[in-house]
User: Fold these one by one.
Assistant:
Number 1:
Amino acid sequence: MTFYVPIGYHGTVGIERHVYTWFTTADSIRIEAFLIERMLYIFYFAYITLSLVSAIIQWHVGKELLLSLLPSTARAPKKKLWQEIIILALFAAGTILLMRLDQYNLNIAGGVPPASTLVWGAAADSAVILVLLDDKEA
């Protein structure tokens, strides 16, 4: 369904111009006999709900995986509670740390030089290639 509906609605040639094909498809579907006239609002609600459910499940599985690495606390429920609080605090700290990062800082942390260096380097490389081509033709 997710593959064939946008192609059926926009065609094989028209679909290649869109980055997010389902948003475009949902925006072009019109519901005439309903309170909301455009399908886009319903799709937004479904998409956000699906994303939220996915995030909750992934965080729960991650918490349980980290808890499984720790020793068993079947007889001490308070110890298990403290373990869960510590793991959730680590998740929250990681989230806050990642929220403070932007694309520039992520590139620096990953070892990618700033964009101005890349543009200058690309321009310098192409100039060297052009000079080499000119020398061969001469």
Number 2:
Amino acid sequence: MAEPSGPASAAVPASRLVDTNVLIVASAADAGSPFRPEGTPVDDAALRQRVFDWLEAFESDPARHAVLDAGWQVCGEYDNKLSEQDYGWLVMMHKIDRNEVVWVDVQPDADGNAVLPPALASAVTDLADRKMVAAALAALELGSACKLTNASDTDWLDCQKALRSVGLEVENLLNDWLVARWHTKHGKRARYD
């Protein structure tokens, strides 16, 4: 595993903390990946292709770095959900191989979940998402212009306001689809932000 190098004062590149669902949806759109389209909640092939196109552009741009943690919590989730033959996992391995990663530390609590500030801990109710938030916040603290990229998880809409309050933006690749899905779960009159 590559580790950070260079002086601490060097500019930290722009980065993305890529939620696992992005890698899954993109892998389902890739003919070479064993991940099947029915394994994602995104049933529209054009929408899966949009996520694939975003990930392909991310992979090919050396100025856009992935955010990963030295303790391997984020990649551990990727590895748990994807095979080494899935496009999404291969993208992250290419970023590591080319040293296009902002490496951060994520502090786990006694249960192994990432520690977040109290205001965020109450807003990020999905314990698995906390490592993603903690890693993205650590990248921001290093000076990287970091966003958290999401394709299909409506939980990010639930905590979007709290994340914005600490300077973390969620980039929803399928925003209209996601909002419609959120309203299906919570009702047409419900508000997420």
Number 3:
Amino acid sequence: MEKASVSVKIYNSTYALTTSASEEQVLKIAAEVDRRMQELAESKKLLQTDKLAIWTALDLAAEKLEMQEKCAALKQELQEKCTAMEQEMQQKCIAAEQQMQEKYTAMEQQMQQRNAALVQELQELQARYERLQAAVRER
């Protein structure tokens, strides 16, 4: 990415920054640093720019660390939830497979019973047919 120079004003001083970040992003960051330095100057009654800069850097670093820890905790929580959901889905799949197997088995039994009934009916019809043929031959 191409680097460009961006002029920013932080705590009454102007700085020319050469960066590959967008100008809009650099200005937002500089505005946040300026705001924090102004607040610290008021709350801590500090006038020295170097001390204000160090306090600001420490505050920003503490926030960054806190955010990283929160992010790690959220990732862990998300991973745990994903694992739980995967297990739940596996259990549901197993239950669905069992239901399908039970239905298949029941249908297979019904088909076997129906087939047995049809075989018996066919045998009865064949016997009747043979009796009718025998009766016809006798006449």
Number 4:
Amino acid sequence: MATSSDETPKTPVTEPIPSAPRTVPPSPPAPAAAPKKLRPTRISGTWIAVLVAIVVLIFLLVFILQNGDTATIHFLWGQFSLPLGVALLFGAIGGALLVAVVGAARILQLRRQAKRITGRPATASPARRES
């Protein structure tokens, strides 16, 4: 029999060669214990509030100094002459006091209602767990 070149030679079936046991590459060394993220404290919050208040006061001072023209204010039966910036500052303070009074009245109303429902006084903050 003649063999033709278009026949594909059969590949002999061989048993798989046992390979060496696979080794897992060593993992990189773990970094030193990462410091826990510190929670902000009340003091740090206070410092941030103080810094924000300083910036607001600087802007307020610049506003008052730039609006130094005298303005005549008529209130109830009186008449006053004040620098415009100071008059606007008094108006803002009066508005803030009005909001604070209304807010305090609402808080007291809610506390009384909570006391009536539960029979015990409402606390401003949850009880702390002791360790």
